Amino acid sequence: MASCLGQQKAADGWTDLFNGKDLKGWKSVAGTATFEVVDGTIVGTSVAGSPNTFLITEETYDDFILELDLKIEHLSSNSGVMARGQFDPAARDGKGLVFGYQIEADPSDRAWSGGVYDEARRGWLYPLDLNPAAKTAFKMGEFNHYRIEAIGNEIKTWVNGQEVAYVVDDMDKSGFIGLQVHGIRNAEDAGRKTTFKNVRIQTKNLKPKAFNSDIFVVNNSLNSLTKYEQNNGWKLLFNGQNSDGWRSARKETFPESGWTIDEGILTIESSDGRESANVGDIVTTEQYSAFDLAFEFRLTEGANSGVKYFVTLSEGNVGSAIGLEYQVLDDDKHPDAKMGKDGNRTMASLYDLIKADKNARFIKPVGEWNKGRIVVSPDNKVAHYLNGVKVVEYVRGSQEYRDLVAISKYAKWNNFGEASKGHILLQDHGDEVSFKNIKIKTLK
């Protein structure tokens, strides 16, 4: 029977990474948590004073499909699975450091299990604020079935059959599989256990599993869309090569200077820091009602800009065109961050109306790329995201919204921000700011 079972596995293309008896083919690195085999499972046990500890495969893998079952029994036992993991044995004074793609196992109320985290490097790539429907997939105290596909530059994850995360990224093309026992904050949590079993992998004749639902894709390729995104209605607003689809907010043509396109990056040059006093804002040639807009922006020190929406160009005002604004700002160095009310002019805020509720760990420093996202639903619910985390939520036209407008700089415009449709705008505020990966999907 054992022989027949082995042949069946070979015919299916699966290889067991864990034989159910011992840890042959695995090694523990980076911490002092323990791993042992108990009743055909791998049991990891937390140790006080230890950093994250990983049981990693001695073999490395390129493209693969990985499946395993994982159980967490205590809230302190955050865990995860390294996919194409990397290890630097010389780091941390020779104690070693694991880094790279990690598929999260998160038993906390945050519930980001199945999300993709870049361990010890870039941080969160796919927080589950991007796919809230998947937050209920993970079951505390039970074995959860994980499926991880790493094929080419795409990583896709499932938890208990639920489609969770979709990341396009090319930083690591090969690496090990790793099982994590997370470091603990409190000594009383020492001895908590995380259990793994049924760890198996396919590396040849891979057949990717299609996502049936429509989830957001974190696509780190430059100005490109996957076939999945295209099939779900996404379009590039900036093609990376020219100004097609954009024009000046002041006239029908694109500015002849000031805005530059170089190596797939759209940049407004620095002038004197004044609002739209140089070449001016640019807007999309098309107008949008309900939409999902994603973009990346890179600040220079002390810079100010913004992404505006529902811009009608009908106000006849001097300076930047009027519209709802996702603030793009160096909060530390630009004085606008200290103006307004209660921080409602800081990065990712609904400018002068609602402060972005953001954690400093989710903000990339000046000179690095931040990911912005604005979702306007057909029912006028609006959300701002920063690096995958929801930071603003409101309803256009609601009484609460109108009360905020009434005490803002926009009070003098009737029905501010309530137009049925409008342009998307990138702001010239006299500072150098760059944009890329601007994509949009119309919502119905």
Give the tally of structural domains: 2
What share of the residues does DSSP label as strand, in percent? Answer: 35-45%
Give the integer mean of the pLDDT values: 94
The structure class reads: mainly beta
Any idea what the CATH superfamily of the largest domain is called? Exo-inulinase, domain 1
Q: Give the overall shape.
A: elongated
| Total count of strands | 29
CATH topology of the largest domain: Jelly Rolls
What is the helical fraction, as a range of percent? under 10%
The CATH architecture of the largest domain can be given as Sandwich
Name of the CATH class of the largest domain: Mainly Beta
Low-confidence stretches: 1-8
Radius of gyration, CA atoms, in whole angstroms: 24 Å
How far apart the termini lie comes to 55 Å
